[in-house]
Design brief:
Layout lengths: L1 H28 L10 H10 L1 H35 L1 H14 L4 H12 L3 H24 L4 H9 L4 H12 L1 H25 L7 H10 L3 H29 L7 H7 L2
Length: 263
Amino acid sequence: MGNKRFRAIALPVGTIVVFLAVWQAVCMALDIKVYTLPAPSDIALNMYEDAATLWVHVQATFGLSLVGLVLGTAVGIAVAVLLHIVPPFKTALSPLLVLSQNVPLIALGPLLIIWLGFGTTPKLILLILVCFFPVALSILVGLGQAEPHLREYLGMIGASRWERLKRLEFPASLTYLFSGLRIAATYVVSSAIVAEWLGAGANTGIGFYLKLKFSGFQQAAVFSSIVCIVVMSLLFFYLVVLAERLVIRWKPRPEPEWKEASP
């Protein structure tokens, strides 16, 4: 068990270290200029020198992403419950839900700015549109997966529609909820970057920092912002994984672990 955990950590870390070493060696051997492709050492140096500024922008983007993820999850749950309780709504609104995911953010962002003005509201709406769909779709599937005999039993004892939803269907859909949350958490930071990039008048956020440094041809700073984006995306993803383990304590352990534990 210990060796398996060690391999699970060592292999990805080793792969990243080898990749960075090869990247550094290629940049040094071919004398690639910083403004073309910065070496990992150049990126690390820029992150160290610009740490205070980066931290301010990271905080802004992290806060925006967190609020967008929470609101998107709440909207997704509400929409899924509504469509589950009222089946005609599911038939009528399903095309609109799919349509909402086919409008490019880069086209919708300027329209929201025209309609709602500058500020946080257009950005949050963009994030809600990105986050609510995978959550709504996942939990809508989960709400229909409750055990049929338990449904019949609750109906026999006179449980109301709300009681069946609260005591049976929603708890049964929690694993599906977290599956959708993992997808939403993966995309929320990159969507926040797009929202900050499109948000005229914004002066904080990694999206603003990225756009500013890109315009100044400061490639090391551009790669520094990419590192921050990747780290934040991974942080959101693993926070959702941790929350799932804390909430769904009854979830069985993966099968391979049982096989290894058996004599």
